[in-house]
Amino acid sequence: MRYMFYPKNVPNMERIFRLVLGIALLGITFLTDQAPIGAGLLIFSALFVMVTAFVGWCPACAMMGRKIGSKSQNRG
Length: 76
Hints:
Blueprint: H1 12-31, H2 36-55, H3 59-63
Helix pairs in contact: 1-2
């Protein structure tokens, strides 16, 4: 039996995109010369995006009421 403590609200394709984006942000951080505050913000953003990719739940999407498989997402 599988237990879920929270409903996932990030689809698999978006999770892959978020992971690639997080890696790119980390690369930009370490390959460019930036002020410490800018580097810190980029690292925080990259880690946040990567954690939401691994977990499959995004708090911003949850505040907007996004759910996987809902009728509003399946409209073409």
